[in-house]
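Input.
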Amino acid sequence: MGMADVPVRDDDVTSLREVTMHRLFAHQTLRRCAAALVLPAALVAALAAAPPGAAAPSADPLAGVVGSVAGLAGIVLPATYGPETAIVVLGYGLLPDGTMRPELGNRLHAALIQALMSPASPVIVTGGNPRNGVTEAQVMADWLNVRGVARQRLHAETEAGSTVQNAEFSARMMAALGVSEAVLITSADHMRRALDNFVAAGIPVVATMTPDVAPLWAEPYGSEK
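Output.
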């Protein structure tokens, strides 16, 4: 009996599948780990190269540097949008002392990536519910500003106390800014409800982003020291 005639057992197929999946996982993990080391440095270099007082890094150098490194690492980056598209980040309840809960930090890591990839887009952070004298939106705006998002790009909506109000009040702010569409950023388990509310408020949502699909290099770049 030739090799082509040798029967393949089910356990052989299972074993081969397991080996293949293990190799793929290991390969992807190595590429992502490399990106986690290299991409933050590329971003820092691009930001440092901007002249003092600049509103934001220019779109082409930043997207070019990050995109090139990410391409080598096999990472798919968020799409780039222009000034007609707002990046809208939904808040999450603060701790009693006015500091962020981890879930809000996760949302902001995702927002940071989208903001850096779309440097012409205004960023709306929405959330009221003050704790210790500060609102969700104020804390969010400060967090993003410290990590390189220009203050003039940041628009804090500080009154919303629910997802419905996040959508309604963001729609008003977008109209005032002359912005026609939005990239919506919130947690994965909150996205369906948020998307429904934003569509009901008349906001064309062209993309969504959640922390679980943000590139792995977001966290080391934006993490607390």
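The radius of gyration is 21 Å.
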